[in-house]
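In the laboratory, one determines a bound structure by crystallizing the protein with its ligand and collecting diffraction data. In a computational setting the workflow is compressed into a single prediction: the sequence and the ligand go in, and a structural description comes out. We illustrate the idea with zinc ion.
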Amino acid sequence: MKTTKFLTIILLLMSSCTTKTAVDLIVHNANVYTVDEQFSKAEAFAVKDGIFVAVGNDNDIMSHYTATETIDAQGKAVYPGFMDGHSHFSGYGENLVRWADLRGCLSYEEVIERLKVHDSLYPAEWLLGRGWDQNLWPVPEFPDNDKLAEAFPGRKVLLTRIDGHAVLASKEVLEQAGIDPNYKLDGGMALVKDGRCTGVLLDNTADVAKALVPSMNKDQRIQALLKAQENCLDAGLTSVTDAGLDIATIELIDSLQETGLLKIHVNAMVNPDDETMDHFMKQGVIDKQRLTVRSVKIYADGALGSRGAKLLEPYSDAPETSGLILESDDFYHHVCQKAYDNGYQVCCHAIGDGGAHHILDIYAEFLKGQNDLRWRIEHSQVIADEDFQRYHDYCVIPSIQTTHCTSDMDWAGERLGDRIKNAYAYQRLLQQNGWVVNGTDFPIEDISPIYTFYAAVARKHLDGTPSEGFQMENALTREQALRSITTWVAKGCFLEDRKGSIEVGKDADFVMLDRDIMKAEENDIPETKVELTHIK
Ligand SMILES: [Zn+2]
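The predicted complex, in structure-token form:
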């Protein structure tokens, strides 16, 4: 009797050992921010088939699960994979593989060196570069293309200057463009020295040469998307929204995901031409594992820097202009109606208070009152006092880029005068519906979600200035900032059931950082390194 009982206990113990559930991955000894509704913490989780199957404390997970791969996080902080709510993923990739980055080159020789590296990585018929600035060189004079001829004989080389108004072109490009020392064009110029073209072309003449650059072929486009993905994963991004794509690019992304080459999730906003809208809308909402298509991108106005953003009153530093609305009301109605009828979100770029005001009027006609359609206003940069409330009344979602605030804060006041108080008013916008979507608009800003987080909470330049931060009443708390780059971005594309938090049943997208951004000294946040990015 005694023996039998003893044996039973042994057997029970053995069975409890052998019934551990087999999973693919366990992460334990971690400081996990799950970013669930309660903002709970955890120590460990288990992943099977790319899905979180258990989240809890070390003991629970280690005693119930056995895994083929186990990661001891050594106490490090783990967060849901970061999501960028507004970027130009495909354009960023194109920049990377097509154009050698010549910014900051301190000599013509350095330009040549960087071009050689680029040429070996991304060989193409045209060798392109951008960002040179002769003012940084030992002799701050316009270059001559003879060094290009020496380094790249017979090649078409075109290098745009940092301001985009000048190019340096090789002899082969000048020939193709038909530019010789006698060439004349209004609003342009080809520099001539000792009776020959130096290769420096200005303004309209530069545009003539630029227009000859052929569009990318398919291999280059694939390379561009893969390079963009590589950098995004390195930065801790597991999902990006691409704000405005054509049919061919979305289909290329789709095909790369089908073959498993592209693992990052892309929420693709479609361009607002009828062909693109009809192509996708007739398929309904597209909700694949790594591709979401359910929104259309339109523009209400331009940008603040170039005074294209539409303001309700004239610019403070240019009283003759107040910017402009880019499209007709017929156009906005047409796109909104199509989106409304097909269950697509409308995502409208609006920077000035006049741009936001105008599109809010149009949204209101369709949305009528509170709703869950999640139509968005991208940037939402300057908002008239009376319009904040309309975000709430019509449940319009502000899609913000907190690094735009820190990039613009030194000069935006000149454009706006007193209206600066209602600019980059992210906390006030957040209060309207209780959430915002955050992103970067990369490549306009750096791709780093850490910088986005830091700009949201600190509202300072990366060097910590100004020490008191900019209009801090509109800073986000760290919890809000973390939500704004994870679960709220997921919600911004209707993916909150699948992405954005570390919860059972969701995609196992997570990142491990070298420090806890929720607790780190504020000025140290920008130094944060991504140690691991895991994507379903
Ligand atoms: Zn954008």
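The two ends are 52 Å apart (CA to CA). Keep in mind that any predicted model is a hypothesis to be tested, not a measurement.
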